[in-house]
Amino acid sequence: MTAAQAGSRGAHAEDGWGATALRLRYAGAVALHDVSLAVPPGQVTAVVGGDGAGKSSLLRCLAGAIRPDSGEVRGPGPLHTGYLPASSGLYPDLTVTENLQFRARGYGVAETAARERIAMLTERAGLAAARDRLVGELSGGMRQKLGVIAALLHEPDLVILDEPSTGVDPVSRSGLWSLIASAAASGAAVVLATTYLDDAQRAAWVLVLDAGRQIAAGTPEQIVAAMPGAIVETATRPAGADSARSWRRGARWRTWYPPGTPLPDAQTAADLQDAVTVAALARETGSSVPGGEEPSWVPDSYPSGGTNSARMKPSTSPLARTAPLAETDHVTCRFGRVTAVRDVSVEVRPGEVVGLIGANGAGKTSLIRMLIGLIPATSGQVRLLGEAPSRGTRRRLGYVPQGLGLYEDLTAAENLAFASAVFGTRATASHQRPRRRSVGLGRERGIPVGELPVGLQRRAAFAQALAHDPDLLILDEPTSGVDPLGRARLWQTIGDAISAGAGALVSTHYLEEATECDRLIIMADGEVVADGTAATIIGDTKVTVVETARWAAAFTRLEQAGLPVALAGRTLRLPGVTPAEVREVLSGPAPAWQDGATATAPAYRISIAPATLEERFFELASAARPAQRQPGVPA
Description:
The chain is an alpha/beta fold. It folds into four domains: about 15-215, Rossmann fold; about 220-285, no CATH class; about 320-530, Rossmann fold; about 540-630, 2-Layer Sandwich (Alpha-Beta Plaits), CATH 3.30.70.
């Protein structure tokens, strides 16, 4: 069947939009192989996978930007579709307002209506003060929010967002999700691509792709429940054949045992990260469910249930008690009248991974640049490997910048050889740790880096950073854009270095990676607002949870009341809000969404649940800069 795009508003609206049995090839390479996806109105659907999984190809087919080789696409037509491409689709030399006005004219939105929508959306996204700024001058998070606004401007029936949150800090991601949830609450069908599993946890339905093929689909709870076999967690990596089905997670190892495989120990409860990792691992290793079928599982129904909570790993390394590899003592950094870092004291010790988390502008980059000696501290002391930062101490660093720092026209092997030549070898008696270069690169070593997918580029960057056997790793967004299995392997590489005695400072926007860190440092407005394990930072913080079949109307009412409400599947979570405050809003004058409620069976259920690290982060960031908190945005 050839692809077909519906041309009239409202066509197929009852069943939703989507695609059936799509096949697509680029120059002989398979981009999509029999991929199907339904995108119902009034919910968020997520497509998950790493670079090269087929996410963008699927979304471009849904948007009508490309035609598949075969299969059917159902959509409301271009005038009723809002599309955010991975490139953001914005003009950097136009202002925020000019970009939105141009988009409104292209969709035929009347001038008065466009002016009102632009004012409302920019206000809600926190971009009102930036309306006259050039887009090229905006931060990454602000550009992403503007791209989402542009896709929503004409109130489309179908909203397609290609990785709206990749590389975006947690505060900006909260704002993005507020816009996304509002669109779904208004009845739009929303589909987004993401590499982040915590984004997938917010969606009502998830499709997982790997190399253009579907490997799992369903609600997050269904995908976990349908995972074949079992997972066993151990303190060390198992030997023999089991080793190929193992990956490191935090300080421990997880091993997947396919159906029928004898279990050596009691199995461990799996979560979404485990299930998606197993799906990719099963396909890669050729393991399968009984009968030799390709490992893919698709549940038939939508069970109810909440989201999964990440486990927190305690710090157990005995090496963490030795002298710091890097430390700051009450450092402050000013640029003119701007204070980027204010009175910050931190340290990184051998044998520990320290996570550095904060929104854009929190001071993370300035702190890292002071630590490695690229900029001086205005006041306070910085010590790197026991002395003031210098070229000599920097030779003992392994650094992976967010831009990777690779030469794209050189092969991975040539990049590695260049880095080794620059740093030299260290075969002295005082440095006898085993070399740590094995990062999963095989034949790809001979391919120019610019031709490799993002995941392999990051492996090459890791190999380069480890080539000179560094004592300290500085990693800036090390796993951005990498699929869950590839992310687990990169963290395994970090873990091997840490086990050998190195230390690591990791800056990340992906809060689920906090489980990989021994300790977290959270920064806001240039200050450290929390320092400790994820469990101690969360403490006994609670959130209010609302469950209702009419989530959209409840979401709208809570948002209009100015409460920081977030969507998780079809459940609403409100950090920093008491059940009494929520009940007061939802128990107002007979809202239509309470139809069918009785005195003994209300239309909603309110409960208390432990906060996630992300929700605790929002609370800390809001306390640090309360004036920046926006109605409806928990950030």
